Every structure is written in structure tokens, then in C-alpha cells.
Amino acid sequence: MSRITAFRASWWTINFLLAASLVCLALAAAREWSMRQYLHGFSDAVVSASEPPERKVEAILDWMRAGPSRAEAARPDDLSPRNPENTLNYRQLLAVCGSATNAFLNLSRSAGLESRRLLLLTPEHKTKHVVAEVLVEGRWIVVDPSFRIVMRDANGRALTRKDLQNPAALGEATRVVSNYPTEYSYDRYAHVRLARLPLDGFHLRKLLESILPGWDETLDWSLLLERESYFVLVITAASAFLLLMLRLLLAWYADRRLQVPRFHFWRHFLRATSAFLTTPEIQ
């Protein structure tokens, strides 16, 4: 009897949590859809859809460099750097490399460009600068949104991070920027810095490298890390899926092990649908 009591308590708890997670999932999906619509409208005003990829990049940088004046936040620390509405509209966030890169990535993705963030690391694996990479004609060229430049050589050719590992190429690319910090080198980099997690990221980087070599390059983490509405959507979807799997496991346990009666929602739903849609036979 105690097992049945424990099952019923677990069953109703899981059902309540599942219903709550589905409501949260619907709200998160609506928020992400609204954010995508906002970004599409914003990018349409900045970038022409008919332009080639490099021109789209330059158009976004032109807007960041000389666009309309932005609002000044009285308390910029209260602004979320993962909210595109903040990063695109407040001058203080567009002056910081991380949030400026987030703004660039959100606009470039909405303009149809494939782009991702790139973290430049110190020897201690701390982030010293954040830039963006954009896939153009099969090459991941480097864009520095905080300095509003595409990294190019003297001939105007856009450079990749491998090109920029050469100090001479890096100096050539940054010649247009006065006092560009010399410590912003490309010898150490990452797309995700797991060291920010407690206990040095639980050594997840080493574990992931052993299980899935090149995971940092293969998987696209940028959208998950740069847009909080998408992060919330992914988390709520994962939570709803796990709760649904747990509910199915409890249902199997009730039917096969405990053999206790329970309300079969889908069975009753299908019967009601069949009765509603089927034309009754008249004797």
C-alpha cells in the first residue's frame, strides 16, 4: 500500500511539473519568436538582403560605427548583455567587446550570415577579448565588432584566425586602429569558456575532448550563449522532455508492476475524437 501511495504522490507531482514546464515552454517560444521578428526587422533596416556576405558585414559595422545615437543607461550594469534589445540600443554595451560582439552576431544571423563568437584567451585561459567569425566563401573570416573592423591584409583580403596567428599579419590587419592592444593575439582561443563554471568547469573540456574531439568547433554554441531568450527556450524544452520521459516511465511502472488504475488521457482523447468525428449509424 505504501508503494501505491508513493506512486500516486510522484505521479501527481510529475504531472503538475510537466504541465508547468509546458506553459513555460509556450511562453519561452513566444518570447523567442518575438525576438526573432524584432531582429529581422532591425537587420532589414541596416542590411540589404541582396548584398554579398562581405558587404553585409561592412553594413553592420557601418551601422555600429556611425548609426543613429543610442540611449544612455543610468545603470548599465543592470542591463543584460544577452538581451539583443539592450545590446543594440545602449551605447555603453556597444562599447564593450563581449556585448558588441553579441549585437553583431544577432544582426548578422538575422541577415542570413553564418557567424559565431571567438574568445581570445590568456595563458591562464581567461578571456581577454571577444571577436566574431563569419563564414564567407568557405572561410571563417575574423571581425572585431568592438573596433568595428574586418581583419584584412594590405591587399584587402579578409583574414582568418589562423592567418592572424602570424604577428606580422595581425599588425597589418590592425594598422587602421590606433593603439590596438598588442596582447590581443590569436594563439589561444575558444568558442566556449567552460572554466567559468564552478570547479574549473568540472573538467568538462577534457571530458568532452576525449568523447567528442573538436566539439568546440563542430557544434554551434553562439546563439545559445549570446541570446538569453533562446537559452531559456532550450532549457525549458529540455526540462519538458525529461519530465515527459519520467511520466512515461511512471506510467509503465503503474501498468506493468503496480497494476493500479490510472487515467489514460490519450486513450480517452482518441475515443472522444473518434466519437466526435464519426457519423453515427441510424437504425
Written overview of the protein:
- With about 280 residues, the chain is α+β, with helices and mostly antiparallel strands.
- It has two domains: about 1-45 and about 230-265; about 50-225, Roll (C8orf32 fold), CATH 3.10.620.
- The chain is about 55% helix and about 10% strand.
- The protein contains 13 helices and five strands.
- The protein has helices spanning about 1-45, 55-65, 85, 90-95, 95-110, 160-165, 165-175, 200, 205-210, 215-220, 220-225, 230-260, 265-275, and strands at about 115-120, 125-135, 140-145, 150, 190.
- Strands 4-3-2-1-5 form a five-stranded antiparallel β-sheet, covered by helices on one side.
- α1 packs across α5 (about 95-110) and α1 packs antiparallel against α12 (about 230-260).
- The protein is elongated.
Summarize the structure.
The protein is an alpha+beta fold.
Largest sheet: 5 strands, antiparallel
The 3D shape can be described as: elongated
The helix count comes to 13
- How many DSSP-defined strands? 5
The percent of residues in helical segments reads 55-70%
CATH architecture heading of the largest domain: Roll
Radius of gyration: 26 Å
Mean pLDDT comes to 83
The CATH topology of the largest domain comes to C8orf32 fold
CATH class label of the largest domain: Alpha Beta
Helix and strand composition category: alpha+beta
- Tell me the domain tally: 2
Strand content: 5-15%
Element order: H for helix, E for strand: HHHHHEEEEHHEHHHHHH
Ranges with pLDDT <50 over ≥5 residues?
196-202
Spatial strand sequence of the major β-sheet = 4-3-2-1-5
